[in-house]
Amino acid sequence: MKTLIVGGGIAGAVCAIALRKAGLEAEICEAFDYGADGAGAFLTLGVNGLDALRVVDVDLRSLGGFDTPRMTLYLGNGRKLAEFDHGGSRADGLATRTIRRAQLYTALRDEAMRRGVRINYGKRLSGAHRLATGVVQAEFADGSPLQADVLVGADGLHSALRFILDPRAPRARYVGLLNTGGFARGVRVTPGEAGTMHMVFGKRCFFGYVAAPNDEVWWFANPAMPREPNATELAAITPEKWRGHLCDLFKDDDMPVRELISATKEIPLAWPTYDFPHVNTWHRDGMVIIGDAAHAASPSSGQGASMAIEDGVTLARCLRDACSIDTALARYESLRRDRVEKVVRQGRRNGSGKTPGPLGRVLRDLALRMVFSRFDRSTLNRQLGWLFDHHIAWEG
Questions:
Q1: How do residues 248-262 score in pLDDT, each as one tens digit?
Q2: Where do the domains of the chain lie, and which CATH numbers do they carry?
């Protein structure tokens, strides 16, 4: 069986790695004519995502980054709301990991190539259909078709395959927040315990930061923008304007946010954040979508990369075990849909309180204090067990 994967990001690379472990042929077609070696900021990999990588024998040490096993929540006035294990407490010692997105991409791409996966760049999908012979033919913008037994769409938020499967498929839903961040140098922050992700419900903007082992502090911010901006509008805002705007948003907060922004040499262009409430069609005629193409969760979930990884491993296992391709794709959807849509809903809830407005902020802060006063660390860990304790049984 040959599988053709469109999209060479996290979902596509992991799917190819898992397919090779399953003894199946895999090839990747990436729309861009280059890799993503220098793209993006950073992300967290939950212990569930790391567990899925370990299932397919990915050396977790090769991913880089550092462990962040704890999370602490604060209000903008510096009041601590809660501290808990960021990913639960696992007997095997696996801990949530914070990593540069480009570093993760590069490690997974290199592992896929090491296992014999061919990667073609500059191959943008333009059409696909199943032939009378049973194979799927994928057409690309450069005019060169490719055929495979299975076509996997790992092509992200704006997936071409999603609309090939269903022309009425939903477009990504803008969640009203932008995302930006950076790497501050030469500044020490308090609080700033190593291995702890600090999350701040600021008066006007949400902020997160973590101290890295190399004396950097990695941070992100989620400024609100109710109307979805286009690329031209965002590009018109210079880095220094962004710096000034972010510092202004946090001028009334007592946490060390403006110090970190000022100590950051380069602040990247902000990008909009999205999710999908529901995508009706995940597969048809030997074609299937995975990762953000099927179920994008807002970054507030902290699970986008981990869900993509789980998808890739689960799909490969289903293709290995099923008596037919269509049966395998149906089984994959049955195993994944409820879980990922629950994560999308959680991410939506997490993001809803980040920028509530002046009156909403007062109500939000009161509600947060009341809620977290009732929970200790063990209670929070139990409530999130369904998320972090997930394990994909590769054998049997």
A1: 999 999 999 999 999
A2: 2-69+94-171+276-356 (3.50.50.60)
The structure tokens 């100590």 sit at 263
Closest CA to 45 of 112, 124, 105, 128: 105
Rounded average pLDDT over 156-176: 94
CA dist 297 and 338 (Å) reads 13
The predicted structure's pLDDT at residue 40: 60
Does position 39 have pLDDT exceeding 60, yes or no? no
For 94, the token pair is: 């696996």
Quick check: bond before 191 cis, omega within 30? Answer: yes
For residues 46 and 264, give the distance between their C-alpha atoms in angstroms, rounded to a whole number.
Answer: 26
CA distance 98 to 64: 9
**Confidence (pLDDT) at 238:** 87
Give me the pLDDT at residue 351, please: 64
Please state, in angstroms and rounded to a whole number, the distance separating the CA atoms of residues 337 and 318.
14
User: Residue 181: beta bridge partners?
Assistant: 220
Q: Rounded to an integer, what distance in angstroms lies between the CA atom of residue 76 and that of residue 78?
A: 5
- In the block, tokens 């500044």 appear at 187
Position 223, amino acid: P
CB 255 within 8 A of CB 202: yes
Nearest-CA neighbor of 295 among 348, 253, 331? 348
Percent of the chain with pLDDT over 90: 72
Tell me the three state secondary structure of residue 177: strand
Distances 248 to 209, 243, 258 between C-alpha atoms, Å: 18, 9, 8
Gap between the Cα atoms of 269 and 246, Å rounded: 12
State the distance between the two ends of the chain, measured CA to CA, in whole angstroms: 20
Query: Which of residues 385 and 111 earns the better pLDDT score?
Result: 111
Question: Using CA atoms, how far apart are residues 160 and 173, in angstroms rounded to an integer?
Answer: 16
> Does residue 89 carry a pLDDT above 70?
no
Q: What is the pLDDT of residues 169-188, one digit of tens each?
A: 999 889 899 999 999 999 99
Kindly state the tokens that stand for 369. 């204090």
**Residue of 170, 130, 171, 168 whose CA lies nearest to 151:** 130
What's the number of CA atoms in the CB half-sphere (13 Å) around residue 240?
A: 0
- Residue of 138, 112, 148 whose CA lies nearest to 11: 112
